[in-house]
Design a protein that fits this description.
about 500 residues; twelve-stranded mixed sheet; two-stranded antiparallel sheet
Length: about 500
């Protein structure tokens, strides 16, 4: 008798797995089941609990991500809590990265979709957490902290990056410089003060980005790594939304019967319909219209009274546009040239700056007021000029570049550039802006009454000045009204700026 029971055990396990699978599909379709497997989920949840996700920890990439959470994210969250007066910012940051973890778990179980838009519904936990963070209203003392956190959380979009248009690791590295820009303001504000938690906040936020970039470089170099032998994303989400026991049972069924379970079983379906028959004989098929033989399209008796539609020949689809070639750059240079007493910074990007200094920030030490600084063809870097004074600063053909300096004797000039941020901690008498789109100038109180601006063929220009404990940002006019009066031409700023 015991031997017979052992022979029936595999069949019993198989049938339990099939029933579990049907319950999961019913839950997804909104049907209620009369059979319960004990811990089944009552509905489909887009964000499974931590215990549900933990069942998929067999992926090396997931194990590495858990290590990253422990070594970087949780420490940063604890730092936010230690600061106080930051509401539940630390908790929401953890929720953001746990949403990222859910996407990695999903990818480890699912094959890559033909259209990456299918992944968008599963990014809701991430976007919801970021939205809650953006809605926080903290004290003004924490403005720089919030801006640093928002710049840091821009990295979550790496899950949508895909080669060849955008590699995820370089995308995350670009966020280091942006977040560092605001973290350095915090470091400067608390320099020389007994505020270890403030410095820890800056260091740990940077650590999150650096370790995330290293993790992506190793496990998701060209984009989120999917499982080529996995199921569809929708099917994987159903399994993750159910209990761990149901998920394990569904996996066991898939390993035993393969495509039979995935594709469905006609006999099993008929048995299920029979089981749903009520006492009065009604079933799931009650009330359906009976189809005669002449209405069954696969029979020879079928009579098609409708005229056949004309075959429309579709025009061939247009050929896909070729991807734009990346701009070629020369060798990165950071050196002092005796001839001309000039510091030269050329052809640097976030990657080259990181390999040079460990971050996207490049520093030069000006030792003589006669020295100049020339920045050319750089992208996504921050340049800090150490020293009390330098003769001049020129920024040429750059994009997404931040420049910080103390004082300039002659002036600062920008040309053929985009998206610049320039901060003068001391005095700069003249800013010359030529053919520049998108520039923000941060002036100190000492420079407000002295500085003048000369602009030509430029747009999206703003200047930020101190206003008590806060700062005031003003646009530099781009639109003017010209009039001819008494034989001469006069110009005035447009009413848009009054």
């Amino acid at each position: 008798m015991a031997t017979a029971q052992k022979k029936l055990d595999p069949l019993r396990e198989f049938l339990d797995a099939v029933v579990t699978r049907i319950e999961a599909l019913e839950s997804h379709c909104g049907l209620s089941s009369g059979v319960s497997s004990g811990g089944g989920s009552g509905g489909l949840s887009k964000t499974p609990s931590v215990r549900h996700i933990s069942g998929a920890g067999e992926s090396p990439g997931l194990k590495a991500f858990d290590k990253f959470l422990s070594s970087a994210v949780y420490k940063f969250a604890d730092t936010c809590d230690d600061l106080g007066d930051m509401d539940n910012l630390g908790k929401l940051v953890v929720e953001t990265f746990e949403g990222m973890r859910y996407v990695i778990v999903l990818a480890s179980r699912a094959k890559q979709p033909t259209d990456m838009k299918d992944l968008q519904p599963h990014l809701t936990p991430i976007t919801d957490a970021v939205t809650k963070i953006r809605a926080l209203r903290l004290k003004r003392d924490y403005d720089n902290h919030m801006k640093a956190v928002m710049e840091m959380l821009a990295c979550v979009s790496w899950v949508t990056c895909r080669a060849p248009s955008q590699l995820p690791a370089p995308f995350v590295k670009e966020c280091i410089g942006s977040a560092d820009f605001w973290s350095n303001r915090i470091r400067k504000e608390f320099k020389g003060k007994d505020a270890p938690n403030q410095i820890a906040f800056c260091d740990n936020s940077k650590k999150v980005l650096i370790e995330l970039a290293a993790y992506i470089e190793e496990h998701h170099k060209t984009g989120v790594t999917f499982n080529p032998k996995g199921v569809s994303i929708a099917e994987a989400a159903i399994v993750l939304s159910d209990t761990p026991a149901s998920a394990a049972a569904a996996e066991a069924a898939a390993s035993v019967v393969g495509n039979v379970v995935k594709g469905g079983n006609v006999m099993g379906l008929m048995s299920e319909l029979a089981g749903r028959r009520t006492g009065d004989g009604a079933s799931a098929a009650t009330g359906l219209k009976k189809v005669s033989k002449d209405q069954q399209t696969w029979r020879k008796e079928f009579k098609d009274e409708k005229p056949k539609p004309k075959v429309v020949v579709q025009a061939p689809a247009p050929a896909p546009k070729k991807a734009e070639k990346k701009k070629k750059r020369g060798l990165p240079i950071l050196e002092y040239q005796e001839r001309g007493t000039k510091w030269v910074i050329e052809n640097h990007t976030t990657e080259t700056a990181t390999s040079h200094s460990g971050s996207s920030m490049l520093e030069v030490d000006v030792t003589d007021p006669k020295q100049q600084v020339y920045i050319y063809n750089c992208d996504g870097v921050t340049v800090k000029i150490n020293g009390d004074k330098c003769k001049s600063v020129i920024i040429d053909t750059c994009e997404k570049v931040n420049v910080i300096f103390q004082s300039i004797i002659s002036g600062c000039e920008t040309v053929n550039s985009k998206k610049l941020a320039i901060q003068a901690d001391g005095v700069c008498p003249v800013f010359t802006i030529d053919k520049t789109v998108g520039i923000t100038l941060w002036l100190s109180q000492a420079s407000v009454e002295i500085t003048s601006f000369t602009t030509s063929m430029s747009s999206e220009m703003n200047v930020s000045i101190p206003d008590g404990d806060d700062r005031k940002e003003m646009p530099i006019p781009e639109q003017f009204v010209h009039k001819i009066e008494k034989g001469s031409l006069s110009s005035e700023v447009s009413d848009l700026y009054h």
